[in-house]
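User: Some background: our group keeps a shared notebook of sequences we're curious about, and every so often someone picks one and asks for a predicted structure to add to the entry. Today it's my turn. The entry only has the sequence so far, pasted here. Could you supply the structure so I can complete it?
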Amino acid sequence: RRVLFRSDPVPRILWPHTLVFNGERWHVRAFDNRHQAFRDFVLARCIEAELHSSTAPLAAIEDTKWHETEKVDVVPASYLSESQKVVIAKEFGMTKSDDGEFVWSAAIRKCLVGSFLHRHRLEHGGSASKRVLGQHPYLTLKNPNLAKAYRFGSD
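Assistant: Of course. Here's the predicted structure to add to the notebook entry:
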């Protein structure tokens, strides 16, 4: 596997249990001998593979970030007018919550939340009260702390 921070490939032993397409590219969820933890690997960055018969140190059932979910609520940016919020709600299939706010609510596997936030340009919480460069211009996280908790490189 090639690590982007190094010039040479870093050999690893992986015990994969799931292939995941995040909307942009394929990943393999696997136990990594180097970190002694379950991690995600971009399949296109794996430059060589061999079959080993050894048993994984941990069973896939022990991958809690795969088996547990996080509720992610996405709402229209607060600076939008009510009519603009209606348009955004329709575009993203949002429904009205009990408090009358439009919300797109999804239960996402914990190991995939960072990819979801990145794909929808919400990795810094989105654009709550004003447009934020690089973030989705019309969406924000209802709970912006999720962006901090699931930022890439935070594990």
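Suggested note for the entry: The chain has four helices and seven strands. Helices lie at 64-67, 82-91, 113-119, 145-149.
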